[in-house]
Fold these 2 entries.
Entry 1:
Amino acid sequence: MSDFEPKIMTFLCNWCSYAGADLAGVSRIQYPPNTRVIRVPCSGRVDPLFILKCLQDGYDGVLVSGCHPGDCHYISGNYVARRKFAVLKKALEFMGMEPDRVQFSWVSAGEGEKFSQVISKVTETVKALGPAKKLVKRIGR
Amino acid sequence: MSGKLKIKGDPNDSIRGFLRHLLESGKIDGVFALGKTGKGLNYLLVTDKEKVDELYPLFPFMPENAANLLSRLTFSGPLPGKIAVVIKPCELRAFVELVKREQASRDNLVFISPVCGGVLDFVQYKNDALEKSVPGYMKSFAKRENAENIRPTCRACEYFIPINADITVIPAEEACEFYLNTDKAGEITKGAPGDLSDGELDEAAFEPLMGSRKAEKEKLFEELKLEDYGIKGLVEVFGKCLGCHGCMSVCPICYCALCAFESKDNEFTPPVFESELTKRGGLRVPPNTIFYHLGRITHMGISCVGCGMCSDVCPVDIPVSSIFLRSGDAVQKVFDYLPGKDIEEPVPLSTFIEDELTEVED
Ligand code: SF4
Ligand code: SF4
Ligand code: SF4
């Protein structure tokens, strides 16, 4: 499975993490090309259903990233996001899904470097876990 | 406030006498409790004292989770008069959850709730239930044991002593004891028939029942083995699901006017079908069954009171409530939260602590 390239869905908040990704881009910082980005107004907008849907639809991992504690554009969206995330993690654990497939991380608009590190780390972790099969329905397999 | 009122009669007779007195004396304006309607058993809201005879407030059945109904009655504001509400402990807990979620109002309600021996499977309810299944049930309860044919989540319910009730009742064949927990309770019971004395509910007397409930819970969780499910287990368990969403519509916690799973977001349009079929080569129709169940766990598992309604209505006997009790238990532990315990404590997903859960961050 060494040539396995995971597909990772990334939810980035408009105000910090998306700008962080942008900075990584304009600064020409390299990071693995395994992510697909969805921009959300706030990490608090991410309903656990979005993450479930990604896993069910064949994504091998999901990253949610928002502003650092205290920096949320909407004051507390990121704290609430963290709680929802904790609940989802429990539910996934139950269903036998490796909890490390979904990750949560704070990245600010100035952290292009950190953004690339986070993506590299998540990609490596998910790569090591192998393809997600636990929630993917494939008829006849 | 504490105190104890003992009223003679079988459970329903004794509580009827009490409720009739409350209505007659004008201490309350109405009663919300189980009652017979023709061949059925429903919750009724009555204001006429003659109608109290039709009530069977302590019947061990739950045709609907009363929290759902009380939310409908009080959603747009408190009821106009003072209402005595007789419901099971888990219904009261669910009601408290709904108040916290701004779906109901507690004002004007006086809660009377029994120490609960569980409820019998409602599908088996027959009009002769009083003569046939209830005596056996009462006998087991008197021995502080689990009765036969109660809901699986009742067998495993540790919260059978009501939390937040103004009055706690211990049902018994000969005479029932009413424990007055709040000033409100003390106020309305002044001059009630029966023997008033000092005394507090002796929870230790229910140790045997608590013991078997705890053991049953452990057994239920062990047999369920939810942690080993994976997609295979999920497909197996929910393979029979019709997608009727009955489990959601009877759930007191699922109050959303438009459920996410019934919204346009989850409609399968031709392009969605096409992309799904290209990916998988085949599709179960209706789709999204497992998504629905897992999604519901993440949305409302935090407030599941384990009432058992969802399993009771499932037409294909999926143990929905056992699965929710198990997953709810885990999710609730993350926040050390017991649904329905404290009306002032916010629902965990509506609040946060700045410095917490750093283990889920990367
Ligand atoms: S779940 Fe508990 S409180 Fe609710 S009916 Fe069953 S035993 Fe009673
Ligand atoms: S999920 Fe089922 S057991 Fe839990 S509160 Fe809803 S109806 Fe009751
Ligand atoms: S009640 Fe049963 S069949 Fe209907 S949606 Fe729920 S689990 Fe499926």
Entry 2:
Amino acid sequence: MTNAVYHDTVLFADRVSRVFQMPAGPVVAVRDLTLTITQGEHAAIRGPSGCGKSTLLHMLGCVDTPTSGRLLFDGHDVTTLGDRARSLLRLRQIGFVFQRFFLLPMLTAAENVELPQAEAGVPKAERARRTFELLDYVGLAPRAGHRPSQLSGGEMQRVAIARALANRPRLLLADEPTGELDQTTGEQVAALLDRVNADGTALVIVTHDPALAGRARRILTMRDGRIEHEATQ
Amino acid sequence: MNVLGFAWRSLVRQPARSTLGILGVAAVGALLFDMLLLSQGLLLSMRGLLDRMGFDVRVVSSDQFPGPGPDLDDAQTLAAQIAGLPSVRSVVTIRSESADLQRAGGESVRVTFLGVGGSTVRPWTVVSGRDIAADRELVLNAYAAEELDAAPGDAVLVKAFCFPEDTAPPQQTFRIAGIAEFLFDAPDTLGAATTADDLALACAQEAGKADFVAVVSAGDPEAAAAAISAQHPDLRAMTNEQAVGQLQQRGFTYFRQISTVLSTVTVSFALLLITVLLTVSVNQRLGEVAALRAIGFSQRRVVLDVLCESVLIVGIGGGLSLPLGWLLAQWLDGILKRMPNIPVQLHFFVFEPNALAVHALLLGATAILAAVYPMRIVARLPIAATLRNETVS
Ligand SMILES: Nc1ncnc2c1ncn2[C@@H]1O[C@H](COP(=O)(O)OP(=O)(O)OP(=O)(O)O)[C@@H](O)[C@H]1O
Ligand SMILES: [Mg+2]
């Protein structure tokens, strides 16, 4: 790997595996997989159910640790980091978007977006400004004071994207971000994700939806814990 | 939004459950507060009564306190000797017997009959009429005056029953000088008092017997007690503090034990209640917690959230428990004081700042301990597996 590529690399998974020890025997969810995610990249991961997509995404997002192999974020091995350092890395460098949004129901849209900023110690005034900017970016500034229960699924996912972007992460990970949405709403969310990527954030999306996967420049197809096929368009 | 604000929102989100927890803690806290007031109340109240009587040292023949019958035989001489000590200001001898009082043509009424000798310091306050000033005068408490239908100036026939009961004294006529409030007075105790000499007269005994000698020190009760003990090694001189200490050793430890046992039970109840509420609530939002961890909340932060919820529930409930406990204490005190022969000024539930501190400490510990199990759940939550379960299910 050249120095230039090295500097351009956000994430480098080096022969990572994830084995779950189950009573009935070990389950190998991800098998000896090597993957590089570069700055500003737009990748989609697809494949049959149970092939290890979510497990891989969780390892890339540092919420799960490979049972073997290394994971380098910005050139630093993160597999050996303690909980505090990993939390901080997720907080500042990685954004997560979930299929089920996981917005906090007792907080307003604005408060949900503010939350990771507060956790990162962003001053109050700066937080308010950034929150408005983000809600405006996802087209929901007028709904800032609304609770998730007062929003539609698509709107909730847009708030969740704003929350994921709150601390200007370098990498945004999304697991079935349109899984709970109808086609039209899903397309709106997909378009928003495209824009996030176009504005410079590396994006890795796990999806069953061919339309959503088709928007990515790089499409990885997994089978049995491995990348079976890779296409760039 | 800070951690407390966040925890508050989590509580408000489940108002019924949070209210249940807060009310539970309020009830338990009120009971706990009352136990604490009760564990010390009687002693503090006793001590207050002794202090208010105006005497700070009492002299008895043995270390029995209170003992039966008049134990001091030549109390007059004894009082004079003690009064001569430089550390002593004044001395009173006190003897308590009972007597039947009767107005001409009226019913007879059984009263506690005190005989007080020595200085002019009296263990009562005159509320109407005047104090005893001449021979064969007595003061009555209001309840006795009412039962007798008597007023200051009236004459009463006195038939005394004295220890030892080997004499059958004849009836004597006394005049009521005034109505007085006795310090050790129970609302339903009929009381009368006269001088030591006139009580002896009513008993048809020689003057000089007393139950104990009450001493007002010149300012240092310890020094006075020590001087009296040195002068009379056969007697026991006790400061009020020692007297209360002896009460505590002899009869009142069981109040403490009962209150300790009941406090432990109530606190354990609060602990279980909060643990169950928090555990259920945490288990219901595991997905959210995992998502918060995924977006960068540290283990410490999510644990702190649970702790703050516990502290808020216990804090608010604990705050409510104080006025509640206070009202309950007044009510219970009223019930207990309906027992016979309880002096008016004696209380079972007495406030002292220390009780508040112990209350806060115990509830604080409850808040922390109750949160231990749910905190463990969120601390050990596997993020990836939880996210997966929450999505698959
Ligand atoms: N926490 C776990 N414990 C045990 N086995 C697990 C765990 N997580 C994943 N697996 C197993 O690992 C394999 C891959 O799971 P994973 O969730 O990554 O699949 P996926 O590709 O995301 O599937 P889907 O498309 O249905 O979401 C599966 O066989 C699954 O049963
Ligand atoms: Mg999956």
